[in-house]
Amino acid sequence: MPQDLAPIIESMAQEYITKRDNVALSIGIIQDQHNSFYNFGTVSPVQHAAPNAETLYEIGSITKVFTGTVLAALVNDGTVALDDPIHLYLPDGVGVPSKIQAITLRQLATHTSGLPRLPQSLLENAPDPTNPYAHYSAQHLYTDLETTELLSPPGQTHAYSNFGMGLLGYLLSLKVGRSLEELVKTMICHRLGMTDTSIQLTPEQQQRLASGHATDGTLTANWDFDVLAPAGALRSTAKDLLLFLQANLELPNAAAGASEDGGLGEAIALTQAMH
Questions:
Q1: Which helix (H) or strand (E) is 36 found in, with range?
Q2: Considering the entire predicted model, what is its pTM?
Q3: What is the per-residue pLDDT for 1?
């Protein structure tokens, strides 16, 4: 007999939303292959409607899981190799020191590249500090790669890095000539029926986007991304994210394998392997 989770979820949600102002909270549950959704609060002080399973949220660094899955798919189809050094994918004329040229795609994906959490000039080049990634361009990225100091030699130490994951997704985009958003949609979303996972939103989706909030609960701008989009730019819904979660739970072990999911199960299995 499945456990009745509703009272537990209600209690946890109420404890969360009473501690802050202006909160929208959507919770998705997979139980016995059945998906259910619980929603609390309001989308914003201006938009008083309650959220639902199709409310779009900025999913932040969950974007990195999608970037890693795209990498795995491209590894499996032979487009790239995990231990390729990044100099193979950088444009000609970008003068990157040899110690950074030698960083591999695997090291970027596992946060062992030695790159710092953020590029050194990110905040310096942000005309709007409430939207810090919006104007950080490819040229800024190249400049920072030329001048950045590694925290440790590549492959030795784990240090979480938006810089590294943004660089990884950008290099994959350069390799195949398509944006990360296109790759995520064609390699993952279309195969799983995820219709609301995007960076660029339609006008209708924009109406369903939850407002951004500062830590004190006041309204703030939603974030936009340029070259570092693969580190945190995706927007999605509880409904879509449960489809992705279900795929991560089931596809690597599915007997059908690559024949029915276009290789997505094999890609997910590679992301879950120990590296």
A1: strand 34-41
A2: 0.94
A3: 53
